Amino acid sequence: MVNLIYIYYIFIKMNPGESDAMIVELNEKPKNEEIIEVATPDSSDCCTTISAKLNDQDFMQKVNVYTSFIFELYRVVMGSFLILFVPQKCGDGVCTTFENIGNGDSHYDAAFGMNIATFVMFLCMYFAEITRENKMITDLHVNVELPNDDEAVAEALEKLPEEHKVGLLTWDKRYLRSGQVALLFFICNAGLSSTVISNNYLDNKTLTALITNILFMALKVNETYSITNTSTNVFYSAYLSKRLQFNDADPDMIIKPDESNDKSNDKPVDTDTVDVSVTDVYPDNV
């Protein structure tokens, strides 16, 4: 036994590092395993978000604007390029779409140039129309409980920030001006294209297609006129199926009162000047 203790003592003297490591290893407690919880998406939150979006007036109105613009784009193409889409006679048959373009006929070239100019002008009008519509959706609100006359809407506009109010009125005016210029181009395009097409009349299909495409654009021009020919503060939507008027400021855009002003109105009570009567505190002891 003594020999074993002596040998162990010599071992410690010769290898002090290893002995410390053995002691640390023996005293070290086992580590607890960490459990990582993986959060799974809650389907109810997704349904709530989708439901909130579908019930949001601004979101649904913007969806309606962009889906309706697809038909509007088709209408402006068919109504502008009359030379291309109205059947005409070429020799003994029907002209192909681009057969008469660039054939050296100055009348065709002039009519096709007017088609392009009309198309570009209507695109400018649609740009002003969509920009105006988005500003109305963002800054205004349809409130059936409020009056929609010019004076009432003017009061609602005062709730908006000044730059939003100015931007809304500016784009409403631009939409009016672009519609007027588009009307002028539409009349010139219909007259010039009809003259060229009549010289190459095929059959009843020519007359039917020409009248249909002209009516396409005539209805749009008339719609634009009815929307913009209003008082300054009357804003009708150009895309909602039912003719609705934006007559109130959007709750998200109303200027919030300065909280600092509210705090300044809350004056501290001067406790030194409060007169508390004994009868108010202890009425039975008097």
Question: What features would you describe in this structure?
Answer:
The protein has 286 residues and is mainly alpha-helical. The chain has one domain (57-257). The protein is built from eleven helices and six strands. It has helices spanning 2-14, 16-27, 43-54, 57-80, 82-85, 106-139, 150-157, 162-198, 204-228, 259-265, 278-281, and strands spanning 89-90, 93-94, 140-141, 235-236, 245-246, 248-249. The protein has a two-stranded antiparallel ribbon with strand order 1-2. The protein has a two-stranded antiparallel sheet with strand order 3-6. A hairpin with a 2-residue loop joins strand 1 (89-90) and strand 2. Helix 6 (106-139) runs antiparallel to helix 8 (162-198). The longest helix has 37 residues, at 162-198. It starts with a helix and ends in a 5-residue tail after the last helix. Residues 19-28 and 267-286 have low confidence and may be disordered.
Q: Quote the beta fraction.
A: under 5%
User: What is the overall number of helices?
Assistant: 11
Number of domains: 1
Distance between the termini: 97 Å
Instruction: Kindly provide the radius of gyration, computed on alpha-carbon positions and rounded to a whole number of angstroms.
Output: 40 Å
Helix-strand makeup class: mainly alpha
Give the strand order of the largest sheet, numbering strands 1, 2, ... along the chain. 1-2
